[in-house]
Amino acid sequence: MNRLREHIEAITPLTDEEFDYVKTFFTLKKVRKNQFLIHEGDEVKYEFLALDGIYKVFYIDENGKEHILQFAKKNWWMSDYIGFFKQNNSKMFIECLKDGEVVSLTLQGRNQLAADLHKMDHFFRIKLTNGYIALQQRIILLLSSTPQQRYEEFVRLYPDLISEVPKKYVAEYLGVSRETLSRLYSNTNK
Q1: Which helix (H) or strand (E) holds 86?
Q2: Of all helices (H) and strands (E), which one includes residue 138?
Q3: Residues 144/175, Cβ–Cβ less than 8 Å
Q4: Across the strands, what pairs with 50?
Q5: What are the protein's GO molecular function terms (predicted)?
Q6: Quick one: 2-117 is in which CATH superfamily?
Q7: Residue 101 to residues 1, 15, 30, 51, 151: CA-CA distances in angstroms?
Q8: Minimal CA–CA distance to 127: which of 2, 3, 10?
């Protein structure tokens, strides 16, 4: 749980007593490659903080096409947030791409922590704001940029993921074919 404390304290310091209380709301879980944290149709009970490993958050459309919304790695939060905050069943999947560990937190636990500790309310507000900003930036990039620009931005923002995530998933995330991704990679590395 030291990694959880370090993650929280990057935003707000906690006393030992406060952290002892905070950690009672989180559950540690080891996750193996190809294991799912959430399946479409599941009740969304948790949001997850990746302590290590790599994960993909995706949905499958009515034609069977997979669409990746997010990759998650160390210190990234993930869930089907529509299902989590509205307490609905999931429309998303979360799959582990590289063995790791996560901690999970229920909505009730999140709300209780925010109500009991102003520091945690502040922490969750900062995390939610940063996530919202990242989502808007991703949407703007998808709507207004070329595949080359999307690829270059992905490499700039996530240089380690380009080598750790299978290329077919990077292509899906960028909204391009595997062949287009190969051309983009070749053009950038000339």
Answers
A1: helix 81-86
A2: helix 118-144
A3: no
A4: 102
A5: kinase activity
A6: Jelly Rolls (2.60.120.10)
A7: 11, 25, 4, 5, 28
A8: 10
CA–CA dist 106, 148 (Å, integer)? 39
Q: Which residue, among 74, 83, 79, 15, has the nearest Cα to 50 in the 3D structure?
A: 74
Q: How far is Cα of residue 188 from the mean position of the Cα atoms in its chain?
A: 27
How many residues would you count in the chain? Answer: 190
Terminal-residue alpha carbon distance, the chain: 44
Q: Which tokens in the block code for residue 100?
A: 């790791």
Nearest one of 83, 101, 103, 99 to 38, comparing CA atoms: 83
Q: What is the pLDDT along the chain (190 residues), one digit of tens a residue?
A: 899 999 999 999 999 999 999 999 999 999 999 999 999 999 999 999 999 999 999 999 999 999 999 999 999 999 999 999 999 999 999 999 999 999 999 999 999 999 999 999 999 999 999 999 999 999 999 999 999 999 999 999 999 998 899 999 999 999 898 888 888 877 776 5
The C-alpha atoms of residue 55 and residue 35 are separated, in whole angstroms, by: 10
Q: How far is CA 186 from the centre of its chain?
A: 28
3-state secondary structure of 125: helix
> What is the Cα–Cα distance from 40 to 25, expressed in whole angstroms?
25
